[in-house]
Write a structure and sequence with these properties.
about 230 residues, alpha+beta, about 10% strand, globular
């Protein structure tokens, strides 16, 4: 059975926070500011030509970056209002898109802004934690795809919920609340509040592999890329 849609709440809260902090506040995606992040989110949903370049490398990725930079020249209040207005007609209104990639996108980027500005982890309502855990579980194979030479288990801390993200020996385990697991799996290792345990070789392999997980590619200059 389909669960409730939480992407709208994350979208609204992120829009509120962007308005509160203004266009030049830092994010975890150094050197991006809040203006850069807002432009990225608007492009993702509303530029059907360049949008695929957020996950595709090469010429398409360069096109996306040019268009994102163009959007940063727009008025910041317009960017926030466009973001707040919700997904336009099309694929981003489909239920499973909202529950999986869009919830992940808005949750992770909301935390990119919050934590870069001194705000700690949130206490999510149980239904939200369930939704995030479903997303961690469904995306585990893809997010751990770069891991080699070790196995990986993910545990919702304080519960019996554990999933295998990668077969291998030795095996490491990442334990934490679902939102923190999602942040770690998306490369926010310095911000995620999780516990990583297991043999040292497995722990290092996990940290190395997940450090390079990318939701999108964001070239800032030349060939430099960072996780977004």
């Amino acid at each position: 059975m389909a669960g409730p849609l939480f992407d709208a709440a994350e979208r609204a809260q992120l829009a509120d926070l962007l308005g509160e902090l203004g266009p030049e506040a830092p994010t975890l995606l150094v050197p991006w500011t809040t203006r850069d992040l807002a432009a990225h989110l608007v492009l993702r949903e509303r530029d059907h030509l360049a949008g695929p370049g957020l996950v595709l490398p090469g010429a398409w990725g360069r096109l996306a970056e040019r268009r994102r930079r163009a959007l940063t020249l727009r008025d910041f209040t317009w960017l926030i209002a466009t973001l707040r207005s919700g997904p336009p007609p099309g694929v981003f209104r489909i239920g499973w898109v909202r529950r999986l990639p869009s919830l992940n996108e808005f949750f992770v980027h909301h935390e990119d802004v919050r934590r870069a500005n001194g705000r700690g982890p949130r206490a999510n309502e149980p239904a939200m934690d369930e939704a995030l855990w479903r997303n961690v579980s469904r995306g585990r194979w893809f997010l751990a795809r770069r891991l080699r030479g070790a196995g990986l288990e993910l545990q919702w801390a304080g519960t019996a919920n554990t999933v295998l993200a990668r077969r291998g020996n030795p095996t490491a385990r990442i334990a934490g609340p679902p939102g923190e697991l999602l942040l770690y799996m998306f490369g926010r290792q310095g911000a995620a509040r999780v516990e990583v345990t297991g043999p040292a070789t497995a722990v290092e392999a996990v940290r190395r592999a997940l450090r390079h997980v990318t939701a999108v590619t964001m070239p800032s200059s030349g060939t430099d890329t960072r996780t977004a």
